[in-house]
Amino acid sequence: MSDISKSQEYMSFRSTIPQRKVVVDDDNTKEWTLYEAGPKTVKSPLVCFPPASGTADVYFRQILGLSALGYRVIAVEYPMYWTMKEFVEGFRKLMDHLGLDKVHIFGSSLGGFLAQKFAEYTARSPRVGSLILCNSFYDTSIFQQTNSAPTFWMMPAVVLKKMVMGSFQKSEMESNIADSIDFMVERLDSMSQQALASRLTLNCMNCYVEPQKLRDVDVTLMDVFDDCALSINVREEMCKCYPDAKRAHLKTGGNFPYLSRSMEVNVFLQIHLRKYDRGSLRARELTEEEMSILTDSDAGTDDS
């Protein structure tokens, strides 16, 4: 077991936050896995989409840290969807099942790509309040696997896992980044061949985001300055796609900063979501004191 898996923090998470399985498709084998914490009265929660190698519990530090501050956080794990249309329709059904009209999505790598595609899919009748994209991309061609993606379903699990692990850094690194990789390798090992193949198919099929359809979506781009699976060119292209996006830079963090730099990531998430405290898209329940301060502030603005 990795050090993170053995940590008191992770064991506390698993003992206090129940894992839920939800089926929203006609196919009963397509199960969404969810971990959720925070007040159910919040109708626009933060939903976390994991990378291709990750399960829903990779965001346990966001769930614990942010829910303690009043945020409603839902980390999801995708069923075996093989096309983008299946995925976006499946997530829309999940939102309907949970009674959610709009959500804020925090997605990492593949999770960030899927978040953009869902925002694009629902652009005419928006279901996305905002996006926080961590070490993500907008065009799958960067992986140079579009031709082989249709064959992933029949490749052995060991081959698929090697494809994913090839992007993990093997040089000397800080202990917390090494720990995050060990934890993610465990998550990767826990996946079935079909689950991993479906993730990699979505990750590498010929597909791209049309950023002009997301021009009205509030976006924060979160990335690291040290080594990660995405090149500097890919990160620069993301900035060109979203010229008005806010930037959240982490000096270090590797591929999985939500694990290795969770406190900094959580601060950036709070900064991003804070602007929604006053309206219907708020992601947290305000305390009486905070409500009073906002009310007084609004009254002062009206007086002026």
UniProtKB/TrEMBL annotation:
Subcellular location: Cytoplasm
Gene3D superfamilies, sorted: alpha/beta hydrolase (3.40.50.1820)
Keywords recorded for this protein, A-Z: Cytoplasm
Record-annotated AB hydrolase-1 domain positions: 82-169
Entry's Gene Ontology cellular component terms: cytoplasm
InterPro entries: AB_hydrolase_1, AB_hydrolase_fold, Maspardin
Keyword Acyltransferase: no
Pfam families: Abhydrolase_1
PANTHER family recorded: ACID CLUSTER PROTEIN 33, MASPARDIN
Family: Belongs to the AB hydrolase superfamily.
Protein name from the UniProt record: Maspardin
Annotated organism of origin: Plakobranchus ocellatus
